[in-house]
Amino acid sequence: MRRGGKLFLVAFVVTLLGVVAYIADVPLLTRLELKTQDLRMQEEKPSPASSRIVLVVVDGKSLDAEGGWPWPRSKLAALVTKLSDAGAKVIAFDMFFPKPQTDEADLAFVDAVRQSKADVVLGYYFRYRQGDGEHVSEEEIRILENSIARARHLPMVVTARATTESASLRDAVLLESNIPGLSSAAASVGYTNLDSDGDGVCRSIPGVVRFHGSLYPPLSVVIAARYVGSRTFVCMAHDGVRSILVGNIAIPTDRWGSIVVNQRHCQFPTVSATDVLVDKVPAATLAGKIAMIGATAPSLHDAIVTPRDTALPGVALHASVVDSILDQDFISRPSWRVGLTVLCLIAGGLLTGVILSLTRVWAAALVSGALLTGYVASCCLVFSKQGMIIDLVYPVAVCLLVFFSVTICRLCLKERSAEPF
Questions:
Q1: CA-based nearest residue to 153, from 98, 231, 251
Q2: Which stretches of 128-231 are assigned E, i.e. beta strand?
Q3: pTM (2 decimals)?
Q4: What is the pLDDT of residues 271-283, one digit of tens each?
Q5: Residues 289, 329, 395, CA angle at the centre, nearest 5°?
Q6: Which of 20, 59, 87, 235 is deepest in the core (most CB within 10 A)?
Q7: How far apart are CA 119 and CA 187, in angstroms?
């Protein structure tokens, strides 16, 4: 075999190994890929938060004034009534209430939610681990399922021909819901679960969860749906989820239904819950708005690590998702990026091998460097203009490995010393 053929064979083998590594999802390279995505998000000028959402926070000031958490349900009932009377369009709780207090306080809370002029949206929580449901009877699970099914919000409706049983979706085995009667009194319910990657950073939320054959939407999607007065739909294909529809708004997802969080830059308008309770917040601040109630006091431990923040309150993350849905301002990982990445892996690796086989190393380095720079710039441009995340690490790593492997192979072939290297 001639020298050029041997060098190309090395390039082919390294490229093939790169494709196998990409399909196998090597943890180290995948984590590095996530970090490059974080850098793209941090470098991009984020969208400002809109004024349609107001955060009503249980902060340190509220705890000092109203007492430690959890508050009596009668106090939460008063909070709902105050927000409703102020003209809020949607009242959403980034929390759920699984344990009863006194009958009187619980009944007051249920009545306030039911009688609210605003649409009240409550949270609940799914559990995924198989062991979580081992000691729960089928009857208990059925009661829990009915606690969210009776709410005035139907589970997601599949709009494309597909089997939800065979699709690659996130499956829950158990849920933590609200006290009896509370969910059915609400306008809607949505789960509060978030996703964290292996490095502990939250970059996405589960947009669809399958529980006992039905599909359920997250809190943020439900809030957006109540605000625009629409139901939620999921577009399915044979391999999973294509998108989630809120009215005519299509939310891009990956095949498992995950929604990438497009975190807002500026803080949302925020008021302390105690100020609402004592009528210190003007009605104009809340009229026609989405009032999202959540904890921000450090002692309540509801802080999330995101690409832009090391301690973002969970309610602010949910608010970012709601806001991006209503603005139709999304970040997505398109399903075709896998095929594009494999194509770039193969093309980049083999092209680097051909260049090294035909030219001197310094010339090949210049050409390969220009190609890699162009690819990296293209990935950043696509993210900046279209909000699409294209895999960057694997194609770049394969091209570099091919370059160094073929260069070493050239040295091992003992080129003539008179021949320029």
A1: 231
A2: 157-158, 170-171, 174-176, 188-191, 204-206, 209-211, 214-216
A3: 0.88
A4: 999 999 999 999 9
A5: 150
A6: 59
A7: 5
